[in-house]
């Protein structure tokens, strides 16, 4: 379906991610519409030729014409939106999303969704420390991962379309994981790292430290500039996994502290060598 | 003294930092010599015109001619070197260093040093994940901090020379702190961050995660590739401060975890907003 550019794509939530989707897909020739909160986002996107049409209202015509609908909303807003407006979907429409947690969203939406509409969940692992359609770019996904999280309810065709969408968007890696595998992985790689960054940024109030800050501290706290509404919601939605990961981190950190207290240089060096060795795996290929 | 390019500078330990010092200072016209472990480093540095002469031996003539000696050695090697070879220094010579901890080094060396030779400690806050003179560069210190840590034993002239050295080397910020202030600051900004990175890199052995790694995890673990000999020594040398900082971090991390366990969204959001606000202070100016 996706390579048929006569199809109409609707983006709900025209922010940094939604805007980047629109920018890239518009170039391929798709008809792009958007529904979003702010009129200024619509105005900007039309002026920049990122979308063909848009509305700040639940526009029945725009929704009813869309073949593919991409939701880029906060998780709970996404669920509510589907509950309230799914009657307007075109029969046969495909729905996907950008939500950063999957278990709590995917099953809930698939369970309540009309049988003639399909939802294949996906997570574009990309972001920046700025927001809004004005900061969206068509290079947003270069080097990034796109993860499709299908379930038993999905058809091979819809999964394939979602995979193709990831490729069209320019992601460097497009893969599939179960919602469970996704949430475990994201709990460690993304949520735990944000917990650490926020903690590091708030654990020491000493003044004037910014004068002496080098790259290490800056790197570890880049993501400490954080959207508090979204991330607190993502943390809660993946609570069981995240707490597990936080415990794992705390245990290892306590181990290192104990080695330091005991002057166990050999133990610390062993841990550092293991760290160096494992980090090599994570270099950009 | 330093702006008098007829003076001779000796660098002991010609690695990444020592090599970068040599490269930059050679350009100003100083006579640069080096004493280092590997003949290959000397050969490379002479071929590249980074130094004028060098030796892998404790060369009495090279040492005796130097007006300024820069030590770029592991902390305990530095102390031993001074103990064993200080009789060879020229009277009136000035000594400085690059050591990443100060309290444990500065007083020890100043106490044992010949009265006609002066040691002003300094810490160039710069590094890379590679080592060796072959990776040294003359852009190494752009954007970085150079911290001079004088004591009551230092003369204003020698402190001033050390400050000028930092400026000549191209550091963006040259400041002074007491050894105590330095160690507290570095315990937080540099040592704690390395503890966190090493812990994050070793706390979860699950395979294939590198396939899904985004920029957040990469940023937080860049420094997890670590020189185990040097950093374990630096940790031990600043043990009291570092353990304090580790406890502060753990307490705050446990606080965040408790909020998550209790579904305390308001508490988490407050912490995230504080984090976002504080992080803005640390942006590169």
Present the secondary structure layout.
The structure is a homodimer of 285-residue chains.
Chain A lengths: L7 E5 L3 H13 L2 E5 L3 H9 L5 E3 L4 H6 L2 E4 L3 H11 L8 E4 L5 H10 L5 E2 L1 E5 L19 E5 L6 H13 L4 E4 L2 H24 L12 H7 L6 H10 L1 H23 L3 H17 L4
Parallel strand pairs in A: 1-2, 1-4, 2-3, 4-5, 5-6, 8-9
Antiparallel strand pairs in A: 7-8
Helix pairs in contact in A: 4-5, 7-10
Question: How would you portray this structure in words?
Answer:
The structure is a homodimer of 285-residue chains. In chain A, the strands form two sheets. Chain A has a six-stranded parallel beta sheet with strand order 3-2-1-4-5-6. Chain A has a three-stranded mixed beta sheet with strand order 7-8-9, covered by helices on one side. Chain A is elongated, with a radius of gyration of 21 Å. Chain A is an alpha/beta fold. Chain A folds into two domains: 170 residues, Rossmann fold (3-Layer(aba) Sandwich), CATH 3.40.50; 100 residues, 6-phosphogluconate dehydrogenase C-terminal fold (Orthogonal Bundle), CATH 1.10.3660. In chain A, helix 4 packs parallel to helix 5. In chain A, helix 5 links the parallel strand 5 and strand 6. The first copy, chain A, is built from eleven helices and nine strands. Chains A and B meet through helix 7, helix 8, helix 9, helix 10 and helix 11 of A and helix 7, helix 8, helix 9, helix 10 and helix 11 of B.
